[in-house]
Design goal:
Layout (H helix, E strand, L loop, with lengths): L2 E5 L7 H17 L4 E6 L3 E2 L7 E4 L7 E7 L9 H6 L14 H22 L2 H10 L26 E10 L4 H7 L4 E4 L2 H9 L5 E3 L7 H11 L4 H10 L4 E4 L2 H22 L3 E3 L11 H8 L8 E3 L5 H10 L2 E4 L2 H9 L3 E5 L3 H10 L5 E2 L4 H10 L7 H21 L7
Parallel strand pairs: 1-2, 1-5, 2-4, 5-6, 6-7, 7-8, 9-10, 9-12, 10-11, 12-13, 13-14
Antiparallel strand pairs: 3-4
Helix pairs in contact: 9-14
Length: about 425
């Protein structure tokens, strides 16, 4: 039986990336393709405590014959190996921040000859010299030539006998990424700008489709609904009831705008009396932090109106989003899950990744900035509901539109490959 690696940023905690792995696995299983599936990141990590996967290192598969790889998705077009490795820590214990030296060096040594072979094959000699000699030694004493290629869109030349290569639901672009994608058998972009750049560079087998996370409810509705009996959900419900506002804020945005956000949320509580549930969509470095939430909001917001959700299970996170009255978040996948459950939603401080998705695929265009957060949240919450049932039908059709767009335009796992 053939082997297929589902490869991506799934060895660190970000619920969107962890969902990708489940979705892509289901796509393959449901298509009837018979293949032995493995889940890989750059380094091995056990993400099963969060209902992720027991992740292997991609370096264990470099010499496998006829190996298929699905690069499962995300904003991978410009992510360097060095940046990716910094994300791979133990999010539960916070021990070993960064990468242990022996793991980093092992990764470098196992790959360095293949990386050199790759750059000699694909890059002009002057660029080889520039990048090779400019590559600084890391604090561990060696560099895996991270300046040469992107982490999660690997070139076929790194593998002894590559089979089918798929890039699923990716975003972003860089010259190394485009060079690698040129040899792929299927390339699916989730944003139009990256898609057009790739098209202009002559990338073939190219498709534009929504982020594959739009299939989350379609594939896993029963599982998400079933989380209501879990202890973390029951504790939250006991504390806040059934009407609440779910809040997710990235650490960098909270660092930059914490005071403004706190003032807006305090006004919001005074106006609406709705409780706020703070949750983390990711606890990898540079993502979210429950400790930061507590430090920022514990004493500044009305007691009894705030709750810090303490589960990092990806299905619990989906459940919290799917039942909220309003969701305010900085994460793209928080936005996507909210849209699948027809929740009122506000993206805070959206960057290109969030904004391009909203503009292209989301029927709701609501975005905000810290100085407008209170006004926008109250306005959206106060919007009248359509009592005729037309609104419910319209929202269901919007979700169906996203699902069918992916299934029609982004579905590479059709059993024919």
């Amino acid at each position: 039986m053939s082997k297929t690696v589902l490869f991506g940023a799934i060895g660190r905690h970000n619920f969107g990336d962890l969902l990708f792995a489940h979705i892509v696995e289901r796509m393959i299983r449901d298509s009837g393709i018979e293949t032995d599936i493995h889940f890989c990141d750059l380094l091995a990590r056990d993400m099963t405590p969060y209902d992720g996967h027991d992740v292997e290192s991609i370096t264990s598969f470099l010499d496998i014959d006829d190996l298929n790889i699905v690069h499962i998705g995300g904003q991978t077009g410009g992510c360097s190996v060095e940046a990716a490795l910094k994300m791979l820590e133990d999010p539960a214990t916070k021990s070993g921040f960064g990468i242990r030296a022996q793991e980093y060096i092992a990764f470098a040594l196992k790959n360095i000859h293949r990386r050199i072979r790759y750059i000699r094959r694909f890059l002009p000699i002057d660029l080889i010299r520039e990048r090779l000699f400019a590559a600084r030694l890391s604090s561990f004493g060696i560099s895996p030539l991270s300046s040469v290629e992107v982490a999660y869109l690997l070139p076929k030349a790194l593998f002894r006998a590559p089979g089918i290569f798929v890039a699923n639901s990716i975003g972003g672009n860089s010259k190394p990424a485009l060079q690698n994608l040129a040899s792929y058998d299927y390339v699916g972009f989730r944003d139009r700008q990256s898609y057009l750049i790739a098209r202009d560079h002559g990338i073939e087998n190219l498709h534009l489709a929504p982020d594959c996370a739009v299939l989350t409810r379609y594939l896993f509705e029963e599982l998400i609904v079933g989380r209501s009996s879990r202890e973390a959900i029951r504790k939250m419900r006991a504390a806040v009831g059934k009407d609440y506002v779910a809040i997710q804020i990235n650490t960098s945005i909270l660092d930059a705008h914490g005071r403004e956000i706190e003032e807006a949320l305090s006004e919001f509580i005074n106006r609406t009396s709705l409780p706020l549930v703070f949750f983390c969509a990711g606890i990898a470095p540079q993502h979210d932090s429950a400790e930061q939430y507590r430090a920022r909001f514990m004493n500044g917001l009305e007691q009894g109106k705030i709750y810090f959700f303490d589960s990092y299970n990806i299905w619990d996170i989906c459940h919290v989003i799917s039942n909220a009255t309003l969701i305010v978040g900085t994460s793209l996948h928080v936005r996507i899950i909210a849209s699948l459950y027809e929740r009122k939603r506000l993206t805070l401080c959206g960057d290109h990744k969030q904004n391009s998705y909203i503009d292209e695929w989301d029927f709701s265009k609501e975005k905000t900035q810290p100085e407008r957060l209170y006004d926008d949240a109250v306005r959206i919450l106060s919007a009248p509901h359509d009592e005729t049932g037309d609104r419910e039908n319209t929202l269901a059709l919007e979700r169906l539109y996203l699902e069918m767009n992916f299934l029609n335009m982004g579905l590479w796992a059709d059993g024919k490959g």
